[in-house]
Amino acid sequence: MTGQLRIFAGALFACSAFAQLIPPGAAVPRTSMPPVLFINGFELDCSGVSFSRTFGSADQVLQANGEVSLFFDICSVSGTPSIEDLATALSTFLANLRYVGGMPVEQLDVVAHSMGGLVLRSYLSGKQNTSGMFQPPAQIVVRKVVFLATPHFGSGLALTFGVTPQLRELSSGSTFLFDLGTWNQGTDDLRGVDAIAAAGNGGTGQAVMKGFDDGVVALSSASLQFYQPGRTRVLPYCHVNGGGIVSFAGLCSSSAQGIANINSAMHESAQMIVSFFNGTDAWKNVGVAAENDPFLSVDGGLIVEARNADDSILPLSSVTAGRLGLLKQLNIPSGNVAYTDLFPAGSVSLRALSPTQAVTNSVTLPAGGVEPYTVKAGPQITHVLPAAANVFPLSSAPGMFVAIYGQSLAAQTAQASSLPFPTQLSDAQVLFNGTPIPLSYVSATQINGVIPDNAASGLATLMVSNGAGKHTVNVFVESAMPAIFTLDRSGTGPAAAINATNNGVVSTANPLHAGDYVELYATGLGATTKQNGLDYANQQPSVTIGGQDCPVTFAGRAPGYVGLDQINCIVPAVPPIPVGGLVVIVTSGIRSTNAATLAVE
């Protein structure tokens, strides 16, 4: 055997040592890339289900990219499980994964087709079978996700194939879909997991409209607009390969190619998966951006629930959406949730009518996907964010200074409305897990307060109550979720910081120099422990200025201030200051702050 032939044979043997698809229960070989878990979608008939039937040769494509593949088959769960039951089984599957040698798999990527994406989202949120109940897992192992034609807001065809727990939940306008889409502050941030989506438009139009569906799922339902804009690509594929039931029903042509059925590395879904998992931006050039699609660029969808002033769900008689002379009646399939699609983006007036009352709210509908809305009388919370800046994901931390945004949050007297900070004369109260929290500012659209220092990690409730009623939302608490205050309140401008050399505010007129001590002001460092009269953060953060480490000498509560954190660090030697200053970022655990700036020379 020649030397070159030996090298070639050795390379083949090395590849074969890492099986393309790891059997269930088998140890996972380590490679330089995280393993990739594939989750299939709804199966009308579980006989003959296999990895290749859904995902084709995707495992071989990933093997060439240095990744091993795993498969969670929804048909492995017996009986007639709900999507929540499948999520519980997925959680067990992930907990049992082990590398060769016995170490647990602590990080993996996911490719989810169709309903498999809802199973994953249910796992991330800890959704329970009881409506409105969530028990999010403390630790998640998912690094990145590619959703392929996932009906995030359902499919109008779901009940065509019969009535099972899964099909009821998959139906457009189901309570399951509304709950899943609103579990954290009225939305779903996927726990901060990095995600993109491929939506197909290769259907005949029989399902919804030509160019707007993949034969089963509408583009708006498959879009990740609710999570982040710019994360959805439209591909010319059918929901599954043609020739089967989708072709028999006239939903896709017999020659149609499935969005998940990857037959080579050139398949557009494969290109997105490989690029995204490799950390490149090539996926952004695959297909068409949702923002450029003729439908998604101008229209959106709505899924709506109505509540009374005391926060009880209202049964719906009718819901209408109006904009610029357009009045559209929403569908009400379940009695408590209404939905519609292809509605012009922009200002929308929603009117929900129940047997006992009518409720009206105005919302701003973005183009590009489906948005969940609660139409409600009395106070209504829209977001609970760090008072310093808007950071992602939507999490809070013990001792965090938060800003609660919404409508009708406080009903004030005439005397109170003339004051700049009418806290004492307001009837508003904020309860965190049932306990009142201290407030520093109260108005009809914003309340500032502080999360309790002893708040436990996990899901909590935050309620705003006043004379007009109450509203409760879930908030997710992590050990730390830092955010830097900025002088211009933009979250991206000059950081609120003191130059300890002269006790002046850091600015271009009073810049920092290498070796100076800087005092940064933030919130969200988490719980503290008192030592020598100071409250030190239990979880030590790190700081970078211009990408260079700024050694931390103190991190904890700013002495004498509730909810305000202070970080002292030694300014490193950095390149000359660019226009706008050097970027400063604080990281605590797995979470990092907004990117503020510091003047350094």
In short:
The protein has 601 residues and is of the alpha+beta class. It folds into 4 domains: 20-292, Alpha/Beta hydrolase fold, catalytic domain (Rossmann fold, 3-Layer(aba) Sandwich); 299-376, Immunoglobulin-like; 380-477, Immunoglobulin-like (Sandwich); 483-598, Immunoglobulin-like (Sandwich), CATH 2.60.40.
Task: Tell me about this structure.
It is a single chain. With 601 residues, this protein is of the alpha+beta class. The protein folds into four domains: 20-292, Alpha/Beta hydrolase fold, catalytic domain (Rossmann fold); 299-376, Carboxypeptidase-like, regulatory domain (Immunoglobulin-like); 380-477, Immunoglobulins (Immunoglobulin-like); 483-598, Immunoglobulin-like (Sandwich), CATH 2.60.40. It is built from eleven helices and 36 strands. β9 (318-323) and β10 form a beta hairpin. α4 (83-95) packs across α5.
